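Look over what follows to help learners.
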Amino acid sequence: MNRTHLRFQVDSRLATLLSQEYSSSERALKELVDNAWDADAERVLVTLPKPMSGESLVIQDDGTGMTEEELRRHYLSIATDRRSRRGERTAWKNRVVKGKKGIGKFSGLMAAAAMTLETRARGRLCRITLRLDDLSKVEDIEQLNIGLHSEPCGTDLNGTTITLSDLHQGLAYPDANRLRQILLQDYGRQDDFSIIVDGKQLAVDDVSGSYSEVEQDLPNAGKVKLRFAISDGKSGLRQPGITLRVDGKAVGRPGFFGLDQRDDFPPKLLRKLYGEVDADGLRDHITAGWDAAVETAEYNRTGWDTYV
């Protein structure tokens, strides 16, 4: 175990970027979830405290984590574009990178007085803590000393945990339902990235609006279950439509299964439709690349089009 000190490396864009404000505490927390996505995590756990409880807020992921050298050279390099170092996509899962401004690390301080980062990679655990009080006491952020705690850990352990403590009592606490709705827009369709907020995984019923479930046995398709919601928001959803899932895996892109061809279904309502249909009985009708259903005569006789 050892302790040392780190310092920020500041890019000339810092003043401009830090002047931007997040529209809500939930939007600020999404930045931390975006970091987990960029770290190729498959699972993120978000634990929110009860208002006025004094408890901490925790975001934990099972991503690649950071080595001590990455922490020094990359995480503490403020306002530099991640893409200039590593490209547009992540290394392992080839995901399109979300965090691009280099200031998402500060988003937690929008809701808390202290933010502790604990990261594990290659048999080493590193921990640093950022405090608003410390930032306010230095005229030049480059002169801020940041204590680094480092010690060995299991080589099979990886990932990052962000703990936000001393939450600002005067600000609105993050709301679990609103946070789910925001995260659902970007991550609700992902098969390899599950987000659990206060013990509940993101799902169709997290859309604010009316929610329905229908289950039915269809010829040649077996049991089929449809879950859908109609958003009550003023604008349309970012990814509207119904996703076909077979054996729990999304097939192709969301679609409307003919609803967009009907005169009695308003186009405005289509933009607010969000749903999933589970149809494991169609596995023999799915292409090898899981990108579409093979529309054969037998497939059409399942009654699927009537069901939707």
The first strand starts at residue 2 and ends at 6. The chain has nine helices and 16 strands.
